Amino acid sequence: MKVIAVANQKGGCGKTTTAINLAACLGKKQQRVLLLDLDPQGHCTLGFGVFNEDARDLYDVFTGEITLEEIILPDVFTGVDVVPATKTLQAAENLPVRRDERDRLLAKYLAPVRDRYDYVVIDCPPSMGLLCFNALAAADLVLIPIEMSLFGMHGIDRMYEIIRELRERHGRDIPVRVLPTLVDSRTRLCRQFLREIGERFADDVLPVMVQFTVRLKEATRQGMPVIAYDPASTVAVQYGRLANETISMLQDHATTDGAGELGTRLPDPAVAVQPDHPASETTTPVLQSDVATDGTGELKPRLGTMKRVFEEARSRLSRQGGLQKVVLRFYDFTGRDVKLAGSFNDWRPDQGVVTRTENGVVEKIVMLMPGTYQYRLVVDGLWQEDPSNPEQVPNYSGGYNSVLQVEEEHETEHA
Questions:
Q1: Tens digit of pLDDT for each residue in 297-345?
Q2: Which of 283, 345, 291, 286 is nearest to 312 (CA)?
Q3: Structure pTM?
Q4: 69 with 112: CB under 8 angstroms?
Q5: Is 7 within 8 Å of 160 (Cβ atoms)?
Q6: Of 108, 111, 110, 120, whose CA–CA distance to 32 is shortest?
Q7: Is there a smaller number of Cβ atoms within 10 Å at the N or the C end of the chain?
Q8: CB 91 within 8 A of CB 108
Q9: For the structural domain made of 291-406, what CATH number should be given?
Q10: Domain boundaries defined on the chain
């Protein structure tokens, strides 16, 4: 069982929405998931339409009045059980607990259910008290949603300090990942924040973002995750990608060496890495590590993950009379009809495009000259922008076209 703590001491950053939809997407992938609502506001419980002010919650478990198994609400969604929260949970901050046991309570009470679940997703309260400390101490991964604003980035350093303290106190690795949320890539300011986040948090930034959309609020109003409310929406696809990334990261972490750095490996210059994320791959391989050698054996940092994701791809995979082979990969479209149309083929779906599909990944291959192109996907007959590409421009129909930049010069990178 792996524990994922979704935490940020700032409210309004999409923390609860992320916990709800991550749990739902993991459940849809045939994982057994326990969603643990640690926020006394009970919004995670409310988001699944099972909120009850008179419900027993973790406060009753911590005081020994009831067991964790007895308060679990089963099958609130496919593969997902919920531990509810009510305002009674606020009293847990004042529990008389020995100092050396204060941040171990949650791990203690989770132990009896470890064999029942593959993942525990914890929605942490927006404060750094006993409840949040317990979640962080029990976590195998801390996921920090961060909105695109100065306020969103403020205070994250304090969370890093607390996690470092817990690492030292308990002698265990607690990896951290940052998830950009409420992204509106149409605005220049938002794109600036994305790049700043990539530079500031480097490898801790996920190659996934969650866009701002009213669909999330509509889904919450209906008491369901967005993949149930509108499974074809861009944001549903993005949360599906987050679930894939989470599973992959925790599997990688389980096999890391004693250094315990999640997903960090020293490069092997003899092996090229194929991109493993659904951003449009025009050329640049996404590297597994941000560490490279400068030829003298001395290590130096590479570009951060998010910066790589949002920079235009540069690798030239092949040349035929000035044309370059461009491969765009799209994930989470299993069983769906996906076509590619753009300024490079007169907006005629799949004209001049080679399609390959393997293990649910759709590859679209085109030969293009260096330059800037606009494109859209046609999924089951419906036109939409590429959900994995933040670079977009308005079109005449009131929607948005995704932007593809094919550059002339590059250096082939290996990892």
A1: 333 333 444 444 444 333 333 334 467 889 998 887 878 899 999 989 8
A2: 283
A3: 0.64
A4: yes
A5: no
A6: 120
A7: N
A8: no
A9: 2.60.40.10
A10: 2-254, 291-406
